[in-house]
């Protein structure tokens, strides 16, 4: 190679590298899509240099993680009855501790009744009961109930954060949600300690495969530095979302002792995760707030989650404050809403959750 050609090649490589580093930074200041752009540009640059040697190996979890219809008898009928026209369902889980009268399930269902024109969403809600007590209570309160059993595990009692039974319950949930996707249903999964105020669907991005709530939101939907919270998820059924749930569930073995959210934080930078091609977005806490990061805009908020809080009684007390504040806001005259800002009183007791 002549000196002229060598210098020309070095100049081209330098220009490409400068673009690789600088252009995403410039775009990042203006468009959230910069994160996707940065990855795709990097991948194409590796291909240009001859460093990408073709498709990666077929991950073993794609074939080994199989679930059968017999494991969830009757689920197809329950989902079909509750489904929207586009095969979307709303799901929550319930155990005996949260199913007692005047506790979590009552607050959850009542929030749809008291929300801003969202009562109709109840017909698309399926309550997944984790024990017989929860199933019996569900059938008293709601029309779409499904009993999800796990051999050798009792999910009836209140599961304290990060205990062994708590982790088993979280991973059983991930496994179940993956099967719902495999059945061809999109879903909104909502923990039962979430109050619903407005229809969330207009806030969802129609192109994303999976959108998840945050404990902490950076302000950019694609930013992987967001802190996800698996208590509120919107997932569209396709090969990418199914592969992601398989990979998420399998990854529990590589990260023993971590719950689903912490494992997601670990794997979201993995090459296998990148190869899935999942269009992942994080939901703005302005619309999907919680006790970790409270939405201050009652005119816009869709949901409020009792996250960053441990203990059933703490959650109940603070969610009752949320319910009262929402009722007070709804009853205010429009003119007063414009001139008098309403703030949530919660969290209160939940602030004591992690004190020693």
Automatic annotation (TrEMBL):
Transmembrane segments annotated in the record for this chain: 12-28
Domain Nucleotide-diphospho-sugar transferase: 121-319
Name by which UniProt lists this protein: Nucleotide-diphospho-sugar transferase domain-containing protein
Keywords tagged on the record: Membrane, Transmembrane, Transmembrane helix
Record InterPro entries: At1g28695/At4g15970-like (IPR044821), Nucl-diP-sugar_transferase (IPR005069)
Species annotation: Sphagnum jensenii
